[in-house]
Amino acid sequence: MSFTMTSTVRKVSEHFEPEAALSPQEQRALRGHLEQIDYAAFAANREVLAKMVGYADLERFQRLAVATAHARGRWVAHALAVSQKSEQSPEDITKLTALRCAFQEFTESYDALRRLVERGYIPLRGPK
Predict the structure, then answer these.
(1) Cβ 117 vs Cβ 49: under 8 Å
(2) Quick one: 68 exposed, middle or buried, by C-beta within 10 A (0-12, 13-18, 19+)?
(3) What pairing do the DSSP bridges indicate for beta strands 56-57 and 2-5?
(4) Around Cβ 106, how many Cβ atoms within 10 Å?
(5) DSSP letter string over 58-94?
(6) Considering the entire predicted model, what is its pTM?
(7) pLDDT(15) > 90
(8) HEC assignment per residue over 24-62
């Protein structure tokens, strides 16, 4: 399995690439074992995440999106305020860094929640 790391996203290639030295029968057996491993990981994720997260619905996504937007706004507003000063203090930069990290964490959390739904780890509930 290969992966590519970008600034905040890890993209994984999930294509099975058999070793040239394996016979077709060994490749099929290996594929079967890998499918069992993948299913075990799926089942574990589904069980654990259902207990920890429960479910997703439009309201939860919306609250997370709003929190992400607020975090982005605080980060950018602080950056603009700091940029107006003739000199930026270490405290200004530390706060700016913390605000950026908060925004990135909310963004990653939103993406993670979406992946949980896409992969079937947690149920997506429709409108009430």
Answers:
(1) no
(2) buried
(3) unpaired
(4) 19
(5) HHHHHHHHHHHHHHHHHHHHHHHHHHTSSS--HHHHH
(6) 0.74
(7) no
(8) HHHHHHHHHHHHHHHHHHHHHHHHHHHHHCCCEEHHHHH
